[in-house]
Amino acid sequence: MGKPAGYWVNKIRTSFKGGSSSSKSSDDGSASGSRKSGSKHSRNQKTEEGNKNVETGEAQPESGRKVMVVVDTTSQSKNALQWALTHCVQDEDNITLLHVTRTPIGQGLDETQRERNSRAHEQVHPLKNLCQLKKPNVKTEIVVVETAEEKGKTIVEESKKQGAGVLVLGQRKRTSKWRVIWKWRKKAGMGGGVVEYCIHNSDCMAIAVRKKSNNGGYLITTKRHKDFWLLA
């Protein structure tokens, strides 16, 4: 018998937040409640300690997961980040904004790599400001990677190198023409696009996010779920 829709919503939301999706038996109810209470107290205590460190200027110990969001200057990237800040990132997590750029050929060689990296940082810095506005207690960093390789491969390698626990990518609306090309590439053994590559090859959970129009929530795609609809 299939599970009700609410079951899958709760299961997916829990996995985004980094918790366990397995259910406990009723016999463990009181013990589970005690553990939850203790866990909540521990999280509050860590938050208070973190705030004290911020006020005194002391270095804060890193804890929680590293949530990596692939960013650029597109609206899809910003939508994915907004979703992650609302539905995925917790106060004990760290955020890495990964911006992958192509190594220029010919025309852009007069500009040094350092200059290109500086310009790339400036392009996505407004997204870091957004993170600091929405999650002021969460550490946010920008990582710029210039590569001549395939973008999907670079993202997967960098997420592994950075120790990401969750990888979030923005996704464009699939047009009928895109679907035909994607099916042809798949049959030819060429694989899909960047998002599909990351979902199927990342060591951590990779989540593709596409915002529906007219405040209709988000469509979420992972290895196990395709275009799963979540309200905003």
From TrEMBL:
Residue span, UspA domain: 65-210
Protein name: UspA domain-containing protein
Species whose genome carries this gene: Brassica carinata
Gene3D superfamilies: HUPs
CDD domains the record matches: USP_At3g01520-like (cd23659)
Disordered: annotated segments: 1-65
Residue ranges with Low complexity bias: 15-36
Domain of life: Eukaryota
